Amino acid sequence: DSGVTQTPKHLITATGQRVTLRCSPRSGDLSVYWYQQSLDQGLQFLIHYYNGEERAKGNILERFSAQQFPDLHSELNLSSLELGDSALYFCASSSRGGPYNEQFFGPGTRLTVL
Amino acid sequence: GENVEQHPSTLSVQEGDSAVIKCTYSDSASNYFPWYKQELGKRPQLIIDIRSNVGEKKDQRIAVTLNKTAKHFSLHITETQPEDSAVYFCAATSSGSARQLTFGSGTQLTVLP
After folding, report:
1. Exposed e or buried b for every residue in B54-71, given b needs 16+ CB within 10 A?
2. Which of A33, A90, A102 sits opposite B46 (nearest CB)?
3. Which of B89, B93, B104 sits opposite A101 (nearest CB)?
């Protein structure tokens, strides 16, 4: 158990809908990262938040947005869903207490768009 | 930005043999190189990492080497066991405020009993 929690574990929805994925980082971690992993694909970095502020954006679609709240949990919002958005979505957290970026992943949310 | 290439994409070895996975990176400012293991349907888990001020690091049957000049790093698994079967991802991160991980495309390792 990495200490990072994600809900829900599974999500099935229809095209055009909107969903929200939730992530709680490890206790004390200030950074949250979101990744998308499609079938047979590697991990694609989406977005990084540090202590409530957006720090970096990767391959995140305009239909996707995220935020990190004062209690440091984060939410990833996916709207106007398409079949191709079906994937595993992971969040990871890190402390940034040192100069190196050690990330700990949550169990993921499996999104299925029908 | 950083680009990480990983080879091979699939690797099959006999139990007890060694496995080697190689990665190259493009950003000379990268200073941290973790390796993650991901079993089917589960989270990626950090198994070992190396920092740019170190050339080699070992942890039991796992070792990682880094060649900063050539900008490549490798994962070595000795005495492989069936439970080593998984997808392995290398990654690189540069210094600075962003510190995002760029992952390789993954290697599916299968250890045959």
Report:
1. eeeeeeeebbbbbeeeeb
2. A102
3. B93
The backbone torsions φ and ψ at residue A84, rounded to the nearest 5 degrees and listed phi first, read -70, -10
Helix (H) or strand (E) holding A77: strand A74-78
Q: For A7-38, how does the pLDDT look when each residue is reduced to its tens digit (9 = 90+)? A: 999 999 999 999 999 999 999 899 999 999 98
Q: B86 with B37: CB under 8 angstroms?
A: yes
Alpha carbon B71 to its chain centroid, in Å, reads: 13
**Using CA of residue A51, residue A55, residue A57, residue A62, what is the dihedral sign?**
positive
Identify the closest residue of chain B to A88 by CA–CA distance.
Answer: B41
Which residue in chain A is spatially nearest to B49 when comparing CA positions?
A102
Q: Is B82 helix (H, G, I), strand (E, B) or coil?
A: helix
Quote the pLDDT of residue A97. Answer: 47
Check if B106 contacts A (Cβ < 8 Å): yes
Residue of B41, B21, B42, B40 whose CA lies nearest to B103: B21
